[in-house]
Amino acid sequence: MKLLRVTKEVSNIDLREKMAWLRLIRTENVGPVTFYRLIEAYGSASKAIEALPTLAKRGGRAKPLTTVALSQIEKEYQALQKFGGDILCAGETDYPTSLAAIDDAPPVLTYAGDITLLKKTCVGIVGSRNASLNGRKFTEKLAHDLGIAGASVVSGLARGIDTAAHAGSLESGTVAVLGGGLDIIYPPENKDLYAKIRERGLLIAESPFGQQPFAQSFPRRNRIISGLSQGVVIVEATFKSGSLITARMAGEQGRDVFAVPGHPLDPRAEGPNALIRDGAVLIRNAADILESLSTFQTGNLQDSAGQKYQPLPPVTHIDDQTLDRTRAEVLACLSLTPVSIDEVIRSTGLPAAAVQIVILELELAGRAQRLPGQRIALLS
Fold first, then answer.
1. Chain centroid to CA 346: how far?
2. Which pLDDT value is given to residue 380?
3. Based on C-alpha coordinates, what's the Rg of the chain?
4. Per-residue pLDDT for 195 more than 50?
5. Which of 107, 113, 129, 192 is deepest in the core (most CB within 10 A)?
6. Tens digits of per-residue pLDDT, 347-376?
7. According to the model, what pLDDT value does residue 162 have?
8. Boundaries of CATH 3.40.50.450 in the chain?
């Protein structure tokens, strides 16, 4: 459920509030879904920041919860602008509607390059880092043909299939979603390709400017690749490949999943062949993909100038007695096993707004974790 009010007017968030968005999403224990809940509860990022210390303390946090200093955020933003990039907040005019539709859409993206590429139909292409020569050649031609047909090809700038996908779609427009900060080239051998994408395509990152990628960065990156795309193509992948995680995310997000079949004796064909067995669309060329994407049109597909952020009115004040009662009953419902938040609300019979505030308290205190599918679990 998206929590930002949207209209059909063109708008941008003012710079002061953008800095508040960056401060809020950079705060410990604040993930995308928690971010949106805080906006819903307090109306704006600025007001949510003011409430954070109290929320975390009420949730049982011993050490005070502090946000990143505004001066540090301003320094990051200045470095980003000097680099030639900018930030894009959920609900702004250019924020892609397809990505905004997922529950954990990044509240803030950094980007450099041609942002209008996100207004076209996007097709994700991912696969093995240890790709075969034939796999790379097929991918490059597939990406080229999709670009010629009017699509933007989205991938993760990794070795192998990702590299071939970007190379094939450079001329028509390619989108690279990075695992680290916008200025971090990973892997280093893609330095020249990175420079070409920065000049002719679009670079996108969720991580702070200057941050090196780490293990958890790549699943987060993968959800953006699938979230931006109407369909995701898996070319080569083993069973344990991150590409299959991307395929799973695409399916959960309601995207089409395409797979290129391979020889059963090739370990790199295990993933695509299993996806096809389980219902993914077998593809032989770009035409198969275009035929399956029923909403595909050459050129711009969506009117993305349809989102406008407006600060929401805060929810009605909840008295301390109600919160105390809610806190006790919610804790009684939670364990290390995830449970649906809606189920907690139904079983307790308490006001939904009060339950959500208590869950925010527990998250900010580091005592609970919100999981996909609007579920919650205690951490210890």
1. 29
2. 76
3. 22
4. yes
5. 107
6. 989 888 889 899 999 999 999 998 877 899
7. 97
8. 111-292
Beta-carbon contacts of residue 189 (< 8 Å; ≥ 6 apart): 159
When the pLDDT of each residue in the chain is averaged and rounded to a whole number, the result is 89
178, 224, 216: which is closest to 85 by C-alpha?
Answer: 178
Give 320-378's CATH code, choosing from 3.30.70.20, 1.10.760.10, 1.10.10.10, 3.40.50.300.
1.10.10.10
Architecture of domain 111-292: 3-Layer(aba) Sandwich (3.40)
Q: Report the SS3 class of residue 234.
A: strand
Q: Which residue, 342, 379, 366, 372, is CA-closest to 29?
A: 366
Question: Do β-strands 202-205 and 174-178 pair in parallel, antiparallel, or remain unpaired?
Answer: parallel
Q: What is the rounded CA–CA span in Å between residue 28 and residue 16?
A: 21
167, β-bridge pairs: none
Question: Strand, coil or helix: what is 377?
Answer: strand
- Give Cβ neighbours of residue 318 (< 8 Å, ≥ 6 apart): 351, 353, 354, 357
- With H, G, I as helix, E, B as strand and everything else as coil, classify residue 210: coil
Spatial separation of the C-alpha atoms in residues 332 and 271, rounded to whole Å:
42
* Amino acid at the residue 199: E
- DSSP character for 375? E
Contact 97, 73 (CB under 8 A): no
Strand order in the sheet with 152-155: 86-89, 108-113, 202-205, 174-178, 152-155, 122-126, 231-234, 256-259, 281-282
Task: Output the CA torsion 127→129→133→134 (10° steps).
Answer: -10
What residue has token string 């090809």? 153
Task: List, by residue range, all CATH 1.10.10.10 domains of the chain.
Answer: 320-378
* Ordered alpha helix ranges (H), the chain: 15-25, 32-42, 45-58, 70-83, 97-100, 133-148, 161-168, 191-200, 217-228, 242-252, 270-277, 286-292, 320-333, 341-348, 352-364
Tokens of 316: 């009605």
Is the bond leading into 187 cis (omega within 30 degrees of zero)? yes
Closest C-alpha among 67, 60, 114 to residue 360:
60
Query: Is the pLDDT confidence value at 186 over 70?
Result: yes
Give kind and range of the element (H or E) at residue 89. Answer: strand 86-89
